[in-house]
Amino acid sequence: MEQKIYQWQDICDHFNGTILLGNGASIAVDHRFAYSSLLKHASKIGLLSQDIKNIFRSFKTKDFELILRLLWITTRVNSILSVPNQQIIDAYSKVKNCLIETIVEVHPEYSVIENQLLSIYNFLKQFNTVLSLNYDLIVYWAMMTGFDIQDQHTFKDCFINGYFEDNWQRLREPIGSNKTTTLVFYPHGNLILARDIYGQELKIISETQASLLESIVKQWQKGNIIPLFVSEGTTQQKMLSIHNSYYLSRVYREVLPSISSNLVVYGWGFGKHDIHILKQIRHVKSFAISVYNTDYNYCERVQRMVNSYIGNRIELCFFDSQSPGCWNN
Predict the structure, then answer these.
(1) d(Cα 254, Cα 256) in Å, to the nearest integer?
(2) How many domains does the chain fold into?
(3) Helices vs. strands in the chain: H and E counts, helices first
């Protein structure tokens, strides 16, 4: 029997706990995000030399962050030990520049999507918690849109003065004249997050929203930080990257399991490469899952996956991803 697909307005009053955003949310904002892999896209547009391809192949990964981290550590160790280092430095520069050029190629400028951000802001502020699996700046830009709106609501990403607040739970409390708060987390990292040469994790800050992407690229080019986001890989590879990050592991171990009431999923494909996320949200009692173009096959596949990894006690309902009032609609 075909699943009923609701309009968002029909169910929204029952789902205001947590929302999980997948790549489909980004694609809905700008079609340039409709690629399967940053690495494949870099290769497609001719940015990958053979020696760089060999490095990724040798480590059996497609994750830029992992390769940059390994090369970065190697250059510093070699420098300390006075080991000839130029070849490693060159490889690091090539991978870094490849990532920068690929991001610039696929990520829209602020001005291109600015007209959609208010709708996204109004949608996301309905929730207590936002979990974005996407590395892009859409959610962050939408959060910043609220700074100019006097609606007694605030978004917090739990970074204070550039660093993650260990006692993140206390930030749920509204401050000043605000009455409601939404906490935002990035379980796979984000462009705004980085590591410095000492392994300290931090948030990149810019004076204006419009210049944020440019500021991030400039910080990368200086070579003092490397990005903190898990762009791709198997679920096992992603888990290794998560365990190697203080912030990502805190989100994985503490934030995800704390979701116990209802969860909205928007634009997430429920792929096997993200099974680790599904397992960590097993305490959720009810799901509302977006569906694009009344894809009943997708509904059936999601139902099977949820039953397999969480159990059939979960209440599932599906809603049209393009229905009025949800995301950028």
Answers:
(1) 6
(2) 2
(3) 13, 13
